[in-house]
């Protein structure tokens, strides 16, 4: 008996509904019908309002804090499992809690591993995500993980700027591998920022490894939170003779004083994806959609086609 591939269905989590609609449009499908009932104490219950029995479903939602975003994804997965979906693919444009990927001091959790296990326990059979904070997080899962790179979105944009004397920069030592990959694709040099933190989100000292004089610098990172590191690096590079400084950051968390920091910095432009919706608009922030990337990968996953070109830097 031949195996018939049924059409996949796409469902959004609340905070990612705008991105999910873009993905569905690019995929060539309608968003599935799901409603969320809320109780006065803050508890909520998602409900699929159509049959998903025997189908592959894609649940789209970033899991950045607060905890309700992760909880909604878990409840959506659990509901799908109990409704007899054949395959449940959790599409996490931003995989939250990923900065806690190891024990960096005694008596702390490894939250990224815990989140991975929670997603699997809820019933996810596959994970699709983009620009994990640490590549080794893929190993926290026992289910298949498709780890996409936003470089497929950013590189054409940077090339289109046609900047002379281009230089790629990493805002810290941990991002040097990503910076070198971009520099190889763009055939330019790399500078690294060495920073020391007084505590989380607070930098006590920063120094440059490399010369930026006369260069148009593009900083590359996986996320921007308070923008303290990026803006301090941009200001330092301009002081050291850079012509201009831009930044590429996949996930715009932008918490605390981030918008104020960006506006008051010497950053010419911050380029991000729409993996997380912006809290407010800024003339300095350019948003590139990741919808086409995810839609293409989801389509290939549905029809068992190769997706290797989508996650090789």
Automatic annotation (TrEMBL):
Gene Ontology terms, MF aspect: ribose phosphate diphosphokinase activity
Record EC number: 2.7.6.1
PROSITE patterns tied to this protein: PRPP_SYNTHASE (PS00114)
SUPFAM superfamilies per UniProt: PRTase-like
Full protein name: ribose-phosphate diphosphokinase
InterPro entries, alphabetized: PRib_PP_synth_CS, Pribosyltran_N, PRTase-like, PRTase_dom, Rib-P_diPkinase
Source superkingdom: Bacteria
UniProtKB keywords: ATP-binding, Kinase, Magnesium, Metal-binding, Nucleotide biosynthesis, Nucleotide-binding, Transferase
Position of the signal peptide: none
UniProt xrefs under CDD domains: PRTases_typeI (cd06223)
Ribose-phosphate pyrophosphokinase N-terminal domain location: 9-123
Major enzyme class: transferase
């Amino acid at each position: 008996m031949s195996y018939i591939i049924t059409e996949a269905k796409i469902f959004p989590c609340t905070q990612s509904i705008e991105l999910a609609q873009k993905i569905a449009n690019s995929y060539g499908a309608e968003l599935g019908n799901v409603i969320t009932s809320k109780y006065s104490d803050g508890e909520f219950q998602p409900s699929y309002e159509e049959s998903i029995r025997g189908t592959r479903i894609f649940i789209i939602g970033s899991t950045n804090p607060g905890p309700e975003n992760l909880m909604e994804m878990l409840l959506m997965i659990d509901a799908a499992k109990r409704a007899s979906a054949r395959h449940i693919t959790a599409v996490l444009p931003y995989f939250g809690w990923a900065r806690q990927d190891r024990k960096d001091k005694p008596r702390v959790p490894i939250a990224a591993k815990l989140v991975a296990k929670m997603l699997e326990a809820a019933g996810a059979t596959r994970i699709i995500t983009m620009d994990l904070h640490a590549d080794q997080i893929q190993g926290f899962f026992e289910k298949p993980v498709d780890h996409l790179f936003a470089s497929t979105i950013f590189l054409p944009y940077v090339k289109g700027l046609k900047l002379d004397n281009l230089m790629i920069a990493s805002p810290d030592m941990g991002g040097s591998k990503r910076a070198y990959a971009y520099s190889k694709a763009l055939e330019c040099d790399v500078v690294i920022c060495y920073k020391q933190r007084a505590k989380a989100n607070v930098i006590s000292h920063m120094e440059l490894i490399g010369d930026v004089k006369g260069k148009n610098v593009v900083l590359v990172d996986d996320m921007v939170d308070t923008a303290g590191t990026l803006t301090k690096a941009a200001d330092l590079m301009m002081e050291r003779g850079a012509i201009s400084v831009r930044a590429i950051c996949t996930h715009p968390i932008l918490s605390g004083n981030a918008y104020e920091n960006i506006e008051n910095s010497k950053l010419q432009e911050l380029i991000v994806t729409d993996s997380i919706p912006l809290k407010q608009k800024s003339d300095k922030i350019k948003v590139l959609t990741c919808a086409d990337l995810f839609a293409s990968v989801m389509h290939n996953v549905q029809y068992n086609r190769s997706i290797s070109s989508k996650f090789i830097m």
